Structure formats: structure tokens, C-alpha cells
């Protein structure tokens, strides 16, 4: 097909014109991109959607060569996609068939602390944990992954991660899963089958890129527009995502909800744990590589092609991209006397000079508060994730965030030697005895102690809350 050949040649030409050699020949991308299956729930009598997940060991040939030991949910690597709507009651049945204790955290979910799946909700080998909650938040691309203190990096690197999609209201964006609504879980791997996830300053930075567990995948698309839900599920790598042909695309959502309106860009950046939803238009008959390009950090070195997208010659019509997005959450409004809390990241194993201690409550927050959290980074690259909340970035060293990154989020890049200020909207579930976490989502840093704990309490009771909690395990 002459047109495809020309496109491939154009790709190569463009890449060398930019001064970088193409990381790979587009022809090398020929394995069908894996799309994690949707997890079918069973419906209980009261309408509760029950989802069953089993953490298990297996073997996968992720990269060329011998299969290696991998871990997954309901399969050998990664996990199925969970999809629920705002208002749904959900119950998760999580069974641990690993040989060691783990947890499952619902990253991005607004839920009671006891359901959060952080280090305080361990699941022993052979045990089952059954959290339940009512989904009540804007449409989001969230995800789930283990969070056992000190071992998150290893458990996630082995493959334990999955997507959790929340729908809210009628679909105005492409939303046929696997057709024009496609998850892209980005992970980088090294050839060593059992690398030390705590080595060096940043832990594992791979040079082999997987998308949904597929190395050099190929995705066929058949519609004029496709929504991609991109999750950085890597241990440390920061991605700067572009298309090899330089095409622009629209960002429609971030970690914690839709943007007010689509924002046209030709590049987005994601640190570990962050998500972005984009809508990409195709003309038909073209093929294009999605790639990440080097930045100026230690955690974004290297140009890598991630996946090849091949558009059918004739594309099915898609609904037009709306000018305003329904269901976008209202801006977080900071009250004049808002509490300001400061968090200092220096080194890689402490926040405000203190290593994570599971028995210590670091912060006590009144339910429903909006606060300013100021995160100062005195060293190299970090990011910052807060459980349970949605926040908006006020500024980074005084500068407003780029438009596409100005929506509701739960994880944010904190550049070297800079200060990020966040307007944080806390939720309404109170539990003075069970903390939520905040931490660097570079998993090597999280595991070595760059993490703290906060509880949400009835307003007015902040001073009565014990600052140490008993540990039961
Ligand atoms: Cu994605 Cu505390 O985690
Ligand atoms: Cu860090």
C-alpha cells in the first residue's frame, strides 16, 4: 500500500529532521496491542456491582526471549479494567494467591479510609479482602495497584496494576471500550528478570517500553476519533508523549475528572501514577507511532517508540468533539483563611525530614476542607500524590500550570528545586483512626519512606485526635 509506505518514510524523515534517530523501525511494531478485558461484575440483590480480583503469579514473555515470572490480577500480568458509573454501589472481592502479603489501593477513588487499600489494609496470602463503597465522583480514569509498605515498587513492577474507569452522565466522548476508548498503560522494563527496584536514586528506569504489557504493539483503529486513557504505570519514568508525525490532539481529562473544555496540544508529560485522557483524530489509511522523547530530568532520558497506531482506510464517523465538556468538576475554591501545610522533599526517603512511620499521624484534616499544600523539592525529580482528594495546581514556582494540566488531579510532578502549590479539596469520610497516604509516586522513594499519613476528622475535633495509632500486624 503506497500510502502507508509514504507515511512510514515520512515518519523516519521527520524523526531525523528533529535530530533524533527513530528508536525503532515502524515495521518492528507488529504484535497486536493487548487491551485488558473489562471485568464483568455480578449484580447483587440491592444492585451492588460485585467485582472479583485474584492476585496471582504466572509467567509472561513480556520481551523477546524466555518468559519470566510475572504477577497479575486474574491472569499472569496486569489486571482487567473495572468500569462503574457514578452512583453505583461497588464491592471488590480481592483474593491474594501470592506467597506474600500485599494490598490493593484504588488510586483516584474517593472513598472511606478503611476501603482505600493502603498499607493499613494488608491482605495475607490466601486471604480475601472485600471493600465496598458508593462511587461518587466525576468521570475519571483511575487505577488500582498494591501498596504494601516497603514493597510497592516490586509488586507493581511484577505486573500488579489495572485500570478503573468511572463514567458520569451520558457519553459525549468516544466510549466504546476497546473500539474507540482505549487504555494505554505505559511501563518501562529492563531485561534483567528480577531487578532490584530499590537500587540507585530512582530505582528501575527501563529501556524496553510496554503498553498494556505489549512490547512493540500495533493497534488498529476504525473510527475518526479515538479516546486514549493513558496511565503512567511505571516505577520512575517520566514520559513526554508525542506522535511521530507531530500531529496535535486534544486533552479532555486529567487524573481526577474532565477538563472544562478540550485543550489542543502536541505533547503531554506524565510522571508515575498520573493519567491523561486524550482524543486523537485520524484521517484514514495512515499509521503513526506514539513515542516518548527525552526531557531534562534524570527520569525522562531516552527517546522510545511505544505503540504503532494504524488507521483503517475508511473510518466510521465519530461524534464531534464538544466545545465544553459536561461533567467537569467545579474549580477548587480556596477560602481566604485556608490552612497552608508545607511539605519538604529532600533526598529520597523522607518528607519534612521524617521517614514514613505507619504508627504516626502526620496531618489531621477537617472533613470537606479546602487547603493549600505547598510541596517544596530541594533536590532531584519527585512527584506528589495525595490519596482520597482532588486538587488543582495553583502554581509551580509562581507560574500557572499549562492549560491541559490545570484540571483536577491527584498526582503531580514536582520539578527539581522548585515549589508546587496545590489547592486541595478533601472529602467527607471521617475516621480518626485510619489514615490516608501522601507520598512521592516514584515507587523507590515511596518504599524507602518518602510518605506520610493524614486522617480526615469531624471539623472541630482536630485537637482530640491521637497522633499515634496502634498497628495490628
Ligand atoms: Cu498510586 Cu499511594 O498510590
Ligand atoms: Cu521521589
TrEMBL record:
PROSITE patterns, alphabetized: MULTICOPPER_OXIDASE2, PROKAR_LIPOPROTEIN, TAT
UniProt keyword list: Metal-binding, Oxidoreductase, Signal
Subunit structure, as described in the record: Monomer.
Stretch forming the signal peptide: 1-23
NCBIfam families found in the cross-reference section: TAT_signal_seq
Taxonomy of the source species: Bacteria, Bacillati, Actinomycetota, Actinomycetes, Streptosporangiales
Entry-linked SUPFAM superfamilies: Cupredoxins (SSF49503)
Domain (Plastocyanin-like) ranges: 57-168, 206-283, 346-457
Name the record gives this protein: Multicopper oxidase CueO
Reaction equations catalysed: 4 Cu(+) + O2 + 4 H(+) = 4 Cu(2+) + 2 H2O
Family classification: Belongs to the multicopper oxidase family.
EC number of this enzyme: 1.16.3.4
GO MF: copper ion binding; oxidoreductase activity
Amino acid at each position: 500500500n503506497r500510502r502507508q509506505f509514504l507515511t512510514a518514510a515520512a515518519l523516519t524523515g521527520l524523526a531525523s529532521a528533529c535530530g533524533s534517530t527513530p528508536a525503532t523501525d515502524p515495521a518492528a511494531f507488529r504484535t497486536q496491542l493487548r487491551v485488558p478485558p473489562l471485568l464483568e461484575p455480578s449484580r447483587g440483590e440491592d444492585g451492588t456491582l460485585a467485582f472479583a480480583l485474584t492476585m496471582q503469579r504466572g509467567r509472561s514473555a513480556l520481551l523477546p526471549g524466555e518468559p519470566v515470572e510475572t504477577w497479575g490480577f486474574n491472569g499472569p500480568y496486569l489486571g482487567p479494567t473495572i468500569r462503574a458509573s457514578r452512583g453505583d454501589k461497588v464491592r471488590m472481592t480481592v483474593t491474594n494467591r501470592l506467597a506474600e502479603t500485599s494490598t490493593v489501593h484504588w488510586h483516584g477513588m474517593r472513598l472511606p479510609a478503611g476501603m482505600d487499600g493502603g498499607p493499613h489494609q494488608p491482605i495475607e496470602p490466601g486471604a480475601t479482602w472485600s471493600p465496598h463503597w458508593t462511587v461518587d465522583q466525576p468521570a475519571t480514569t483511575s487505577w488500582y495497584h498494591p501498596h504494601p509498605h516497603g514493597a510497592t515498587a516490586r509488586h507493581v513492577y511484577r505486573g500488579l496494576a489495572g485500570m478503573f474507569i468511572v463514567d458520569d452522565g451520558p457519553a459525549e466522548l468516544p466510549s466504546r471500550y476497546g473500539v474507540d476508548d482505549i487504555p494505554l498503560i505505559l511501563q518501562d522494563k529492563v531485561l534483567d528478570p528480577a531487578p532490584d527496584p530499590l537500587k540507585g536514586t530512582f530505582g528501575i528506569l527501563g529501556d524496553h517500553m510496554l503498553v498494556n504489557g505489549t512490547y512493540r504493539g500495533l493497534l488498529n483503529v476504525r473510527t475518526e476519533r479515538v479516546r486514549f486513557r493513558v496511565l503512567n504505570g511505571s516505577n520512575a519514568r517520566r514520559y513526554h508523549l508525542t506522535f511521530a508525525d507531530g500531529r496535535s490532539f486534544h486533552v479532555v481529562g486529567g487524573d481526577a475528572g474532565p477538563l472544562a473544555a478540550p485543550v489542543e496540544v502536541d505533547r503531554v508529560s506524565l510522571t508515575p501514577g498520573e493519567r491523561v485522557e486524550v482524543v486523537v483524530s485520524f484521517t484514514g489509511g495512515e499509521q503513526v507511532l506514539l513515542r516518548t522523547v527525552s526531557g531534562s530530568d534524570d527520569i525522562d532520558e531516552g527517546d522510545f517508540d511505544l505503540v504503532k497506531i494504524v488507521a483503517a482506510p475508511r473510518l466510521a464517523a465519530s461524534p464531534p468533539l464538544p466545545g465544553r465538556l459536561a461533567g467537569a468538576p467545579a474549580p477548587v475554591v480556596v477560602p481566604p483563611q485556608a490552612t497552608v501545610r508545607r511539605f519538604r522533599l529532600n533526598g529520597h526517603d523522607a518528607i519534612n525530614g521524617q521517614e514514613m512511620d505507619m504508627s504516626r499521624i502526620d496531618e489531621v484534616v477537617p472533613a470537606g476542607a479546602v487547603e493549600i499544600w505547598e510541596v517544596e523539592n530541594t533536590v532531584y525529580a519527585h512527584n506528589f500524590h495525595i490519596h482520597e482528594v482532588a486538587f488543582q495546581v495553583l502554581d509551580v514556582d509562581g507560574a500557572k500550570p499549562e492549560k491541559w494540566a490545570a484540571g483536577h488531579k491527584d498526582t503531580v510532578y514536582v520539578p527539581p528545586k522548585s515549589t508546587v502549590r496545590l489547592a486541595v479539596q478533601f472529602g467527607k469520610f471521617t475516621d480518626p483512626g485510619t489514615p490516608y497516604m501522601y507520598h512521592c509516586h516514584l515507587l523507590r522513594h515511596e518504599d524507602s519512606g518518602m510518605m506520610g499519613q493524614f486522617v480526615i476528622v469531624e471539623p472541630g475535633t482536630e485537637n482530640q485526635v491521637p497522633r499515634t495509632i496502634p498497628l495490628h500486624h
